[in-house]
Write a structure and sequence with these properties.
The protein has 235 residues and is an alpha+beta fold. The protein is built from five helices and eight strands, in the order E-H-E-E-H-E-E-H-E-E-H-H-E.
Length: 235
């Protein structure tokens, strides 16, 4: 089995509400018919509107939704029906083959089939420093940054997806896709986000540790970070 990440763009002028309704109402069933399993939709809706100040943008326009799924093979020969189902629900899409690492599986607020997962999900398409050897970037991400992310945040799910290769010709050249889930309050309260409620000194220390670790390997000129609502289908 292989995991694929799809980024979806709505047609120009289409409202987020209309786009999200179409995705959630019919895309999961369409994908299941192609053999896809463990389908997850990340959509940008009014619930995550308060997290707008946390958005970071490279692509113009920026992604409107993310689809994560598993197929027996990501080979284009066998992926055609899945790509067609995605294409029929959006204006355009990009896709990547990834290797998933569940650093913090969601055991606190497990997803329910077809329902919005508790809290909110920060979906991050990131790029590594272009002048940094790939092996060094991965070593920092896996051996140092993962521990920092665990220790300094209120995340109850943390999934690292290392991009193995792009599957579409126009896929932006990211190095990884990261998903982290937080309580809703973390959208607007840094003390909640950085697991430092009632402790401003801890907030400053945790925020600095996270910033220092990110700056060591992430190219902030080539990232897209979007707040989303997470929906799982046949989790």
């Amino acid at each position: 089995m292989e995991k694929i990440i799809y980024a979806l763009w709505a047609a120009e002028g289409e409202s987020r509400e209309s786009f999200n309704t179409r995705l959630l109402s019919s895309l999961p069933e369409a994908l299941k018919k192609t053999g896809a399993t463990r389908i997850r939709l990340n959509v940008r809706d009014d619930t995550v509107g308060p997290a707008a100040p946390l958005i970071q943008q490279w692509q113009e326009p920026q992604q409107d939704a993310v689809v994560q799924l598993w197929l027996p093979s990501s080979n284009a020969m066998f992926r055609g029906d899945t790509d067609a189902a995605i294409a029929s629900h959006c204006d355009r899409f990009a896709a990547w083959l990834v290797a998933e690492s569940a650093i913090i599986p969601n055991t606190e607020h497990p997803p329910v089939d077809g329902q919005r997962t508790w809290g909110w999900s920060q979906a991050s398409f990131i790029s590594f420093h272009a002048d940094m050897p790939w092996e060094k970037a991965i070593a920092h991400w896996h051996k140092h940054h993962a521990r920092v992310a665990i220790d300094t945040q209120s995340n109850f799910e943390y999934i690292q997806n290392l991009i193995v290769k792009p599957l579409t010709d126009d896929a932006p050249g990211y190095g990884a896709f990261v998903e982290e889930c937080f309580p809703l309050e973390a959208m607007t309260d840094p003390n909640v986000f950085f697991d430092a409620v009632g402790d401003d000194a801890k907030l400053q220390a945790n925020a600095k540790a996270m910033a220092d670790s990110c700056e060591a390997f992430i190219d902030f000129h080539r990232i897209d970070i979007i707040p989303t609502s997470q929906y799982d289908f046949n989790p």
